[in-house]
Amino acid sequence: MDLRQLRYFVAVAEELHFGRAADRLTMAQPPLSQAIRRLEADLGVELLHRSTRRVDLTDAGRGYLARARKILGEVDEAAHEARRIAAGAVGHLTIGCVGSATYSLLPAISRGLSLELSGVDFSFRGEMLVPDQAAALRTGEIDLALLRPPIADLSLTVLPLRRDRLVVAVPADHALAALRQVDVADLADADLIVHSADRRSVMYDVVLGLFRDAAVEPRIRHEVGETSTLVTLVAGGLGAAVVPEPVTALALDGVVFRPLARPAITVDLAIAHRTDRTEPHLARAVSVVQRIVRDAPA
């Protein structure tokens, strides 16, 4: 099927005049007339009655016009859709977030992505630990992850976003709450709540490394899988916790946050995706997230 012939025929059929159709198509009239003759010859039917004064559609021409318009409309819509896909304006993405990013960044990210990529359907999964995020990226269960490096997986591209300070969450009635800042040594006699070792949490390794470097033996009393549960247990008076500063966005009665004594300890936040994923809408989403995180309050 020659789409040009279809467009030529539709122009003539709508104008019912070769001269006006030629002007509309910005072409000369003789080539247009020849193209319509070739179309009729290819179909083996007469589509137009021609006279010296007018052009009329035959019954076959009227039927062909309806189908031609539909075909051209679908072709134009397909071209429009292809351009939108190439521009990263349509698609679906699922984003998985570690706990601290869930509370501090997810609201701004979801709003920003919805505004700037309105044709892309987004869904979110919060409170994911890094090993679960890596596995979900590999299987395609999620498309992007806001996570805490390190992550040793060559199939994933990991792009740094920012560094977050560590703070200490303590019950409001705990003796440590009276301090302006907390040293690791101050936590020697405190019950600790940490992310789960069994689920290979990055924060578990960070906290244990912090105590190891300070030559302090941690007194771990509870291990949890979700940041919200961790802060809830602190609010319940069951212990203290070392967490990234964005967790302070999860404000609960009965919890106060105190900075760690200098030197300030930080943990990285990054965005990751499978290296073989090159869809334009994914690349645009990464760019939007990078800008939102860069502009977010520290």
From TrEMBL:
Gene Ontology CC annotations of this record: protein-DNA complex
Residue ranges of domain HTH lysR-type in the record: 1-58
MF terms (GO), sorted A to Z: DNA binding; DNA-binding transcription factor activity
Entry keyword annotation includes DNA-binding: yes
A Pfam family: HTH_1
Keywords: DNA-binding, Transcription, Transcription regulation
Family named by the database record: Belongs to the LysR transcriptional regulatory family.
Record-given protein name: LysR family transcriptional regulator
